[in-house]
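Chapter review: from sequence to fold.
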Amino acid sequence: MSETVTVDESATHDAAREPVTGERADLLEALAKQRHFLLFTTRDLTDEQAGRRTTASQLCLGGLIKHVTAVERTWVQFILDGPSAMPDFTKMTEADWARRADEFRMLPGETLAGVLADYAEVARRTDELVVTLPDLDAAQPLPKAPWSEPGGRWSARRVLLHIVTETAQHAGHADIIRESLDGAKSMG
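The token string follows.
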């Protein structure tokens, strides 16, 4: 039987760092709020529950956390290294897309505790980057992808806003999945 996992959201915050103010504080606060809603949906779940599909979609709570983790990790690397941090989505094969689909589900041997620990580490790295990045206006050309505007460039600021948006969108998905799982809600 799977062990129930308790969510420790404090792992995404570093209380020892200097106070952050202004735009950077706003970005960190917005991201922390959306992470809270996403993580809250996994409270007191077993590994089996975290991997269970409860709606018509292929999504499960553990898979959503894995996906948000991968998205945040990749986009933060994009801020640092540009489009080389991402694949050329226009050249991905069916096998590449199938491997990418694995980030939306709990695979054999994966645990909710492991997925949450990975997310906490990525969140810690992102938060540190928000605090230490010299220039939020620094921009990189977008990777090749059908959804990227040709010749488009995104600043670090825009990437961070994208991470907040992606996290919020998937927190909403997670709330529906959790309510379908056992009736628990994030709000209300």
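Two observations follow directly from the output. The first strand starts at residue 139 and ends at 141. The helical segments are 22-40, 47-50, 61-81, 94-101, 112-132, 156-182.
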